[in-house]
Automatic annotation (TrEMBL):
The chain crosses the membrane at residues 20-38, 76-98, 104-128, 135-155, 167-188, 308-329, 349-373, 385-402, 422-441. This is Major facilitator superfamily (MFS) profile domain-containing protein. It comes from Clonostachys chloroleuca. Its main location: membrane. Keywords: Membrane, Transmembrane, Transmembrane helix, Transport. Pfam families: Sugar_tr (PF00083).
Length: 499
């Protein structure tokens, strides 16, 4: 059956040459998501292993009468990964080794901390063509679900072992993902934009020539490089960007957009879903997520960022509210904290809406938060702005991972919200709707230079989808030079007349 032309992603008319190499590079870098997803899925399985609970217990006995770790220790173990975020695969390897050989909590925490360093690889992106940039960047989020799925499979294969292999096998496999990334990075080319920023135009020409499979003197290649160069020259004329510049207009609006997106993405995730599997669903939901990513990634460049984020927020908001209501009315609790199911039909309905929520998140906010933040910043402050927005994501990741056990669990010092936690996430999803409506610009099909023009010329995000670039940065630079020359000539004539 032929694929409908109306659903195909249209290639830009001005896009010449081959795109496959740039796409492959972007997809390879997105493979870093496997590392993050596998590590995230690993810890949830390990914490539930009886052998691990007994070995690492410091004397605490859970309500079932089994040796275990306390809620505070669990929060520290889960959240410490985010606190150790840095860019280094080999430090990640050190972390893997440390908590593989660990037999007590201090060394296990140290391993988790250093493992967080390696997850910084996820922030790197290849130079993908603008007409399919959303697909390539969205592939990173899909890679996370692959990592989660592999972790679930390994967990099921080792969880019943009554020896240290129950968790050490699980952790040791992570070395494979790190080594693959490290080996591939040895061959990754530098991006043309990075080379132009460093004043290496000749190398930038060769790099783009290899990526597009075009001769160095090809008109389309020269035009693309001229556009990037003109934009860079303009930004250079404004001075070197600092972190302080990120918090000044006109960059401030974009920074708040990126930080808000990353924060809300974390606040809307079903954090610690594995804790609710006895109520709602098991790791099978990961299979559902994979299918969603495969079928929906093309939509990012077909239908645009703004509408998908808006409808995704609406879908998540409604789903969270229904799950909160169903979970609250269909379950009860004994004096010892044990959960009682009052209405099995209500529980089954909750499972259905959890899956619906996953569909909306996996196809919109999960990947698109990274797509949009990767597109909206100018070259002058791009690296610094992205570091701030990524730090926002990880800060919220850590805070939520640390606080969720205290909000959900039963016992002294805990909020015991249980299913009511979904009301909190419903409120966060409601904020997402307003945030998209008032803050998100449509950047589908625009080059990074054209996104700069969009923010310059359009003040209302709701009008951004109608905007079309009328001039290139190269044209604007020439026009600006002409206007400057005219002004200088007028001034010279005025001085001559006065004489």
């Amino acid at each position: 059956m032929a694929f409908p032309k109306s659903l195909a992603i249209p290639r830009a008319k001005d896009e010449s040459g081959k795109a496959w190499q740039a796409i492959l590079i972007g997809l390879f870098v997105a493979f870093g998501g496997v590392l993050f997803g596998y590590d995230t899925g690993t810890i949830s399985g390990i914490l539930a292993m009886p052998y691990w609970q007994k070995l690492f217990s410091t004397g605490y006995v859970d309500p079932d009468g089994n040796p275990n770790v306390t809620g505070a220790q669990e929060s520290a173990i889960v959240s410490i990964l985010s606190a150790g975020l840095m860019i280094s695969t080999w430090v990640f390897n050190l972390g893997v080794v440390l908590h593989t050989v660990a037999t007590a909590i201090p060394m296990f925490l140290a391993g988790r901390f250093f493992a967080g360093f390696g997850v910084g690889l996820i922030s790197a992106l290849g130079t993908a063509p603008k007409w399919i940039r959303g697909f390539v960047v969205g592939a990173y989020q899909w890679a996370i679900t692959i990592g989660l799925l592999i972790a679930a499979i390994v967990n099921n294969a080792t969880k019943h072992r009554d020896d240290s292999g129950s968790y050490r096998i699980h952790i040791g496999i992570q070395l494979a993902w790190s080594l693959i990334l490290f080996g591939g990075m040895l061959f990754l080319p530098e991006t043309p934009r990075y080379l132009i920023k460093g004043g290496r135009l000749e190398k930038a020409t060769r790099a783009l020539s290899r990526l597009r499979r075009l001769p160095a003197d090809h008109e389309a290649l020269r035009s693309e490089l001229a556009e990037v160069q003109a934009n860079h020259d303009f930004e250079t004329s404004l001075g070197t960007g600092t972190y302080l510049d990120c918090f000044k207009p006109p960059i401030l609006k974009r920074l708040l957009t990126g930080m808000g997106l990353q924060a809300l993405q974390q606040l809307t995730v079903l954090r610690k879903l594995w804790r609710f599997k006895r109520l709602y669903c098991d790791h099978d939901y990961l299979l559902h997520q994979r299918g969603v990513y495969i079928t929906c990634m093309y939509a990012y460049d077909k239908f645009g960022r703004r509408p998908l984020l808006l409808w995704g927020a609406i879908g998540m908001c409604v789903s969270q509210l229904i799950v909160a209501i169903l979970g609250t009315v269909s379950t009860g609790q004994t004096d010892t904290g044990e959960i009682i199911v009052k209405n099995l039909s209500g529980q089954k309905a909750a499972v259905a809406f959890v899956c619906i929520y996953i569909f909306f998140f996996a196809s919109t906010w999960g990947p698109l938060a990274w797509v949009v933040t990767g597109e909206i910043f100018p070259l002058k402050t791009r690296a610094k702005s992205l570091s701030i927005t990524t730090a926002t994501n990880w800060l919220l990741n850590w805070a939520i991972a640390y606080s969720t056990p205290y909000l959900v669990n039963y016992g002294d010092g805990y909020a015991n919200l249980q299913s009511k936690i979904f009301f909190v996430w419903f409120g966060c999803c409601f904020l997402c709707i307003a945030f998209v409506w008032f803050m998100i610009y449509e950047t589908k099909g625009l080059s990074l230079e054209q996104v700069d023009q969009l923010y310059e010329e359009v003040s209302n995000p709701r009008e951004s989808s109608k905007w079309r670039p009328t001039t290139s940065w190269e044209d604007r630079e020439v026009q600006g030079g002409h206007e400057k020359a005219v002004k200088e000539q007028v001034h010279a004539n005025t001085v001559e007349r006065e004489k």
